[in-house]
Amino acid sequence: MTSATLTAQRRYGFDFSRPVFVLLALLLCLLVIFPMFWLVYYSLRDTAGHFTLGNFIALVADPTMVRAFWITGLMALGVGLLSTVVATPMAWLVARTDLPGRRIVRVLVLASFVTPPFLGAIAWEILAAPNSGIINVVYRWMTGNEAALVNIYTFSGIIFAIACYTFPYVFTLVANALDRVPSDLEEASSILGAGWTTTLRKVTFPLVLPAMLAGALIALLQALTLFGTPAILALPAGFHVITTKIWSLFQFPPQPGLAAAAALPLLIVTVLLLRGQKWILGRKGYTVLGGKSGAPRITKLGAMKWPAFALVGFILSLTVIFPYAALIKAAFTQNIAEPLTFASLTLQHFQFVFFEYSAARLAMWNTMLLGLLSATAVTALVLVISYIVTRRSFKGAAILGFLATAPIAIPGVVLGVGLFLAYANPTFMLYGTLWILFIAFLTIEMPAGYQQMSSSMSGIHTDLEEASRIFGASRLKTLWLITTPLLKTSIIATWCFVFIGTIRELSATILLTTANTKLVSVVIYDLNESGNLGAISVLGLTLLAISFAVVFVAQRVPLMSGSRLQARG
Length: 569
Known about the structure:
This protein is an all-alpha fold. The chain has a domain at 350-569: MetI-like (MetI-like fold), CATH 1.10.3720. The chain is built from 26 helices and no strands. Helix 23 packs antiparallel against helix 26 (533-554). The N and C termini lie far apart (57 Å).
């Protein structure tokens, strides 16, 4: 060791970068690999702790379990198809035509994005329950017919309710693809005499087909792994999907081995679907090569402008306007079926939730605390990981990137099973504490935070960082003094995004909460079991108000517009 090196060490101190790298690798293994290890372990053990394949045999032999898998697959396919059929023409109308109010349409689609799917399912309970649903009450009053016009407690009703909050995935991908399609090929098609319908069919549609297929896969994946909406709508209808079936295996008497075995096929299918989505978006055959292209070609709708506007308005009414109106009505009236008049208005549900129902106040405190802690911890974690990976600070740094994105392939209910099995044993005993929920949120929200942060990090030139290193600063000090200030807007956006994802999570938390650690999402689910729709609506509107306030802040951050959203429920 040279005297210059010794002098530098004395002057600048020990470089903690390498120990931090090792600690991060161990932490990510703990977050990702550890619960999956216990998931596999319990799936291959009987109640006596002996190796067995009996759980998988029981899985195949149980007709109710096989039926749940089939129903889940058919439901997911139906959601993917319906979301694509609805979102694709709507995205084209918004991105490539002179449809009135296009900016407002995008805002309302974002509102559908932010709405927790389980809350949307409850809103449609208020609207379309066969006996007390507002639509059916109005229908009976207008026609005198005692039969129900609509019934949300059906297989098709569940597909519809889930598609209301998954179609934004397809819409966003297709609209973004249409925004990027250059006008050159479309103009050439017009010059050669093709009408706008021919150009749309032979030029524009093939260019956005990969984005449409990728969006359909995401919608299918969301439906496949969703717990909240099926639990709220499918169980009253008399059937299970696989996520609700896994949840039921933790009811008395618990069957953790069978639950672990049932979770593994769901994990495998999720990984395959994500690989398929990545393959579709990664194909180069649809890339347009060339110089700078003109602005997107806007199609004049002519006489079809207002019918198209009415169609888009109808879709948004089903996904945003009607559900929100139903929640507001339920929150401010004593009975959802009674007409909305000044005499029927009440604040009783607000009084109950905020001043009388102690479980709601505790859940709100737990939710906000975990939201703040999780958003801060995930943002700090992905900031350091992104820096190490994008700057290739150490040999093997890419492993951190892989581990940080791996949880995206783990469905929420599968992660919940793995965390329960890993931390409910006597060695750790974290079940029943907020720590196990904190670990769950770190794992669930880390992939989206890492993707956004690493994308922003890649766009920052390294000149200032290299200058800092030349003057003797360690990697961590360079990150703190140079890189972090340059990433301020991205850090704020990531924090907001993770916070929203945390406060609306249900699929994993439903398996990990106890009476003292319940969150607002779980309390809403519990209240739905008792039929207290007024209190549910108050809590739901509170969650939405907090989410939209955070989105409002995030929208002031330019980099938030490019972030990737992932709904759970």
